[in-house]
Amino acid sequence: MVLHLRRPDRSRLKRIVTPFVGAAIGVLFSFGMTGQAVAAPSPGDIEQQIDDSWNKLEPVIEQDNAAKTELATDQAKVAQLESQIAPLQSQVDAAFGRINNISVRYFINGRQSMLNAILTTGNPATFADQLAMLDGLTRTEQLQLKDVIALKDQYLAQKKPLDDLVAKTTTEEANLANQAKSINAQIDQLNTMRLAAYGTTGGSGSLRPTTCPVNYDGSKGARAAQVACSEIGKPYVWGTAGPSTFDCSGLTMYAWGKVGVTLRHYTMWQWEDTTHITQAQLRPGDLIFFYGDKHHVGMYVGGDWMVNAPHSGDVVRMAKINADPISGFGRPG
């Protein structure tokens, strides 16, 4: 099956990021500018504000994962094109070497400009007419010149998509670097808010309140769920897929990868990579997608429990599957 990569909507990213910065700063300033403890928000209120802000930021993180994957794909294409045109470049260089004697002879005879006109022509169809103007060339010399022009045109035709791709990847690398700064700044703001509310970046409650996975039958899905369970307690770090830190789609990709099934590092791609099922069909290892844009994903482990990497400042943990609005279910493999 051929998978078509969907290009992230960069204008949408900008619409998400810009309002978020204002919202996060607004929450931070809601503590008051005077330093007086007037109408301070309760920890519950702040937690809700943090969750709302995170739900605006997480789609940006998942889109960033997609953009990085596409960049890596483009960089691989650049390397492939470079390897393909390298032999052609060698042929062009060798061909120009072969006509060196012709160039010297025509320079001595004062006819170098006509030779240059032929070698720099952009229209091979006019070659015969131009060549006819150069009497005195041997047939061998004519063929050598014709080969040079043909090789040069072939080389330039193959080099253009390479040049375009190099320019594109350079721009994408710069965009990703800027976006990473923005995401990291927003994550720092969220963690500051959490510290102000709770005095810790950790969450509350038990990370593993019951057996994980709840059901185990030795199937590939159950084994993937077992891998996810073994990562409980490891920190959430956006853009990562193990083995020490994870984001939400990085955890599911890592767990299924350990049992030989490939998922891509982006929630919407994982939705595309899976067979869609109903809640009644859920079994350990299946993926649960949340929110209308599916910007969060967790792994079902049985008994209405899942394992997921929730957000920055938290760790991989078990949670009830109805903790957030569900938008779909998918089965890898």
Secondary-structure topology with pairs:
Blueprint: H1 10-29, H2 43-98, H3 100-108, H4 112-119, H5 127-132, H6 139-198, H7 220-230, H8 248-257, H9 267-273, E1 275-277, E2 287-290, E3 296-302, E4 305-308, E5 317-320, E6 326-331
Antiparallel strand pairs: 1-6, 2-3, 2-6, 3-4, 4-5
Helix pairs in contact: 1-2, 1-6, 2-6, 7-8
Task: Give structural notes.
The protein has helices at 10-29, 43-98, 100-108, 112-119, 127-132, 139-198, 220-230, 248-257, 267-273, and strands at 275-277, 287-290, 296-302, 305-308, 317-320, 326-331. The chain is α+β, with helices and mostly antiparallel strands. It has 2 domains: 40-201, no CATH class; 220-331, endopeptidase domain like (from Nostoc punctiforme) (endopeptidase fold (from Nostoc punctiforme)), CATH 3.90.1720.10. The protein is elongated, with a radius of gyration of 30 Å. The two termini are 12 Å apart. The model is unreliable at 1-38 and 131-136 (pLDDT under 50).
